[in-house]
Design a protein that fits this description.
By secondary structure, this protein is an alpha+beta fold. The chain is built from 3 helices and 6 strands. Strands 1-2-4-5-6-3 form a 6-stranded antiparallel β-sheet. The mean pLDDT is about 95.
Length: about 150
């Protein structure tokens, strides 16, 4: 896992270690074939290929799976500071459908952290660059985790 800006800082190393530890315990992401990459402080990318069991009755990717991918990138981005952090709220706008076989990439970027809270934006794109969804998540550091 490498920082998105090239040079790896100490904060990026902390972020990478946090991501490795979190991924090892994340059975859901591993089960769905989600891969985490490009982790840095306040940032993360998650990748997933839409499988045939992820299609809804319209033959397109079920929105819940698109949301799950975005939420996963969000979770890894907001857990890059060695503080146990969870989602407090999230919204998604579905822009275009994804189809079985599409590789989706969710890029999460921290917008602001304040006190025990944070705001993160996630864009989900197909491998061809087409935007599939825009997601905004609010995070909260768990009590006792510091911050």
């Amino acid at each position: 896992m490498r920082g998105p800006l090239g040079d790896v800082t100490e904060a990026d190393e902390v972020a990478r270690r946090c991501a490795e530890k979190m991924y090892a315990a994340d059975r859901s992401s591993r089960h769905l074939g989600i891969e985490i990459s490009d982790v840095a402080a306040g940032r993360a990318c998650a990748r997933m290929t839409v499988g045939d069991t992820m299609a809804n009755g319209h033959g397109i990717a079920h929105g819940g799976y698109v949301f799950l991918l975005a939420d996963t990138a969000f979770a890894f981005a907001c857990n890059t500071y060695e503080l146990a952090t969870v989602a407090a709220a999230a919204d998604v706008v579905f822009v275009a459908p994804a189809r079985v076989g599409d590789e989706l990439v969710a890029e999460a970027v921290e917008r602001v952290r304040f006190g025990r809270s944070g705001v993160y934006d996630v864009t989900v794109r197909r491998a061809d660059g087409a935007t599939i969804a825009e997601f905004r998540g609010s995070s909260r550091v768990l009590p006792g985790a510091g911050g």
